[in-house]
Prior knowledge:
Blueprint: E1 3-7, H1 12-24, E2 28-32, H2 43-48, E3 56-59, E4 62-65, H3 67-78, H4 89-119, H5 127-143, H6 157-170, H7 180-192, H8 196-199, H9 201-211
Parallel strand pairs: 1-2
Antiparallel strand pairs: 1-3, 3-4
Helix pairs in contact: 1-3, 1-6, 4-5, 4-6
Amino acid sequence: xxxxxxxxxxxxxxxxxxxxxxxxxxxxxxxxxxxxxxxxxxxxxxxxxxxxxxxxxxxxxxxxxxxxxxxxxxxxxxxxxxxxxxxxxxxxxxxxxxxxxxxxxxxxxxxxxxxxxxxxxxxxxxxxxxxxxxxxxxxxxxxxxxxxxxxxxxxxxxxxxxxxxxxxxxxxxxxxxxxxxxxxxxxxxxxxxxxxxxxxxxxxxxxxxxxxxxxxx
Length: 217
Ligand SMILES: N[C@@H](CCC(=O)N[C@@H](CS)C(=O)NCC(=O)O)C(=O)O
């Protein structure tokens, strides 16, 4: 039975799922929802996910949303081994920590900085929000020191989740250059993650068009 994924490419959480699916080797039955025209509010989608958020996955009788939960589910259920979401409790905890860091701190701070201008008509960005985002990027820079991937020297779902965020920051005019480990890791992701350009780049290009609103603000 096909695995359905309701998604929109510009959404970073959706792109982290697309990247995970590529790595796992799962073919998703992609169902595009245009958030700009509020397609996510249509009754047939709200019947699947009352929270009306994308990504939303349907795999048999499992209806699942929250991108990080979808990524770890796909890796746990369909990957050929446990390298993407390690079963060793300590290593898994380090992966989980970064998933929560991305959701609660890193991407959260980007949203607080960028969304008011990108989506809610605010005239100017708040420079204190940019400082907070750079503080979080500084922490990420430290987390990435001394190894190639987010957790150690092997790709995990933490890389897919973080790169969906950081590649969005890059096209939002956020200067990543002072976060040297972040820029080196981002280059590694672009060159080394299977299906990166298919799964992530089109959506990044879409969000770049909206993020132009941030330039000079
Ligand atoms: N924490 C959620 C966030 C999902 C989310 O906010 N998705 C946005 C797009 S990036 C969305 O669906 N917005 C439309 C809506 O909530 O109605 C996840 O990681 O899946």
